[in-house]
């Protein structure tokens, strides 16, 4: 029996540096940023879920499963992950942000291989220098642990996964893999880089 792997795209933030625009819906080279993320990960997973706290009807164009955080108050990515783990029936859940339009097309197989090799509960992507805490593959059974961490007032994802058996997979061979777009200037810069 093959494992079922779903993905959640986190689009629930307030995007203050983007002037409050919903980052997943900001256009990059003619299409919303979330479409770029979906294009990269769709072939790698069974179902894509979207965590969004606003514009849910627009996000519903991309997924049958669009949901907000369980807790109101924009508590950050962990809140979206906790909600997603309650919505999936998958054996493993890929977590990615909506503002990473150049995600690796081999993200899932490499994270899964790292997870298996280390017999880990969580596999986190790295750009070769820094871990990317919002790009990970994890077991949905960790939901209670993450919820307790969030309920205790904690917000830092890497502090949470440090409590578990974690594998780190480097994508240093793909230098732009985790470029994330937070400001209108960065949209412009990435547009130029990708269209040269």
Structure report:
This protein has 196 residues and is an alpha/beta fold. The chain has a single domain (5-195), classed as Spore Coat Polysaccharide Biosynthesis Protein SpsA, Chain A (Alpha-Beta Complex), CATH 3.90.550.10. It is built from 7 helices and 9 strands, in the order E-E-E-H-E-H-E-H-E-H-E-E-H-H-E-H. The protein has helices spanning 33-41, 56-59, 77-85, 107-118, 143-151, 157-161, 184-195; strands at 5-10, 27-28, 31-32, 48-51, 65-67, 92-97, 122-126, 131-138, 166-170. The strands form 2 sheets. Strands 5-4-1-6-8-7-9 form a 7-stranded mixed β-sheet, sandwiched between helices. Strands 2-3 form a two-stranded antiparallel ribbon. Strand 4, helix 2 (56-59) and strand 5 (65-67) form a beta-alpha-beta unit. The radius of gyration is 16 Å and the shape is globular. The termini are far apart. The relative contact order is 0.18. The mean pLDDT is 90.
Compact summary:
This protein is α/β, with parallel strands linked by helices. It has 7 helices and 9 strands, in the order E-E-E-H-E-H-E-H-E-H-E-E-H-H-E-H. The protein is globular and about 40 Å long.
Average of the residue pLDDT scores: 90
CATH architecture: Alpha-Beta Complex
Question: What is the chain-wise order of helices and strands?
Answer: EEEHEHEHEHEEHHEH
Radius of gyration: 16 Å
Function: Transfers a GMP moiety from GTP to Mo-molybdopterin (Mo-MPT) cofactor (Moco or molybdenum cofactor) to form Mo-molybdopterin guanine dinucleotide (Mo-MGD) cofactor.
InterPro entries: MobA-like_NTP_Trfase, Molybde_CF_guanTrfase, Nucleotide-diphossugar_trans
Protein name: Molybdenum cofactor guanylyltransferase
Binding site for GTP: 10-12, 23, 51, 69, 99
């Amino acid at each position: 029996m093959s494992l079922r792997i779903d993905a959640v795209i986190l689009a629930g933030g307030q995007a203050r540096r983007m002037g409050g625009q919903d980052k997943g819906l900001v256009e990059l080279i003619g299409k919303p940023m979330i479409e770029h993320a979906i294009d990269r990960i769709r072939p790698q997973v069974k179902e894509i879920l979207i965590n969004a706290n606003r514009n849910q009807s627009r996000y519903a164009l991309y997924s049958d499963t669009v949901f907000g955080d369980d807790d109101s108050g924009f508590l950050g990515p962990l809140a979206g992950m906790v909600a997603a783990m309650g919505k999936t029936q998958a054996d493993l859940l890929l977590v990615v942000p909506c503002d990473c339009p150049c995600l690796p097309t081999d993200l899932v197989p490499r994270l899964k291989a790292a997870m298996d090799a280390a017999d880990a509960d969580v596999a986190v992507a790295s750009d070769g220098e820094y871990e990317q805490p919002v790009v990970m593959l994890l077991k949905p059974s960790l939901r209670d642990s993450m919820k307790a961490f969030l309920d205790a007032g904690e917000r830092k994802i890497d502090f949470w996964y440090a409590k578990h058996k974690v594998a780190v997979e480097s994508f240093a061979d793909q230098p732009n893999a985790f470029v994330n777009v937070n400001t209108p200037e960065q949209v412009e810069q990435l547009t130029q880089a990708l269209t040269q």
